[in-house]
From TrEMBL:
Residues 18-79 form the DUF202 domain. This is Uncharacterized membrane protein YidH, DUF202 family. It is found in: Endomembrane system. It is a multi-pass membrane protein.
Amino acid sequence: MLPRRPRISDRDVPHHDAGLQAERTAMAWQRTALGVGGISALLLHETGGKLLQALPGTLGLAMATTLLVLSELRYERTTSRIGTGAAFSSPRLLLLLALTVSLLAVASIGLILVQG
């Protein structure tokens, strides 16, 4: 006869906290928005007050602020949906981020080429 394995009680099993994943994701979105804001601020700093060249930096700062607000709203929505089985994806937020980063990349390259 095989020896009996001891039973594991519920107290011994570490519980999974589903809210931590949402929190880590929200912090990643916040870091991304802060990075976009930092690059945008550098673009504004390098324009020397020229209006047309300052436009991408200004738009980038507006998008960074928007991303910060949307990431907080997404976090609140995600934590309220935990346990319901509802989908958590935000394709519009991803599209907004991709467009913002692409715009800033093109504007940065253009600014470097113009200022030489």
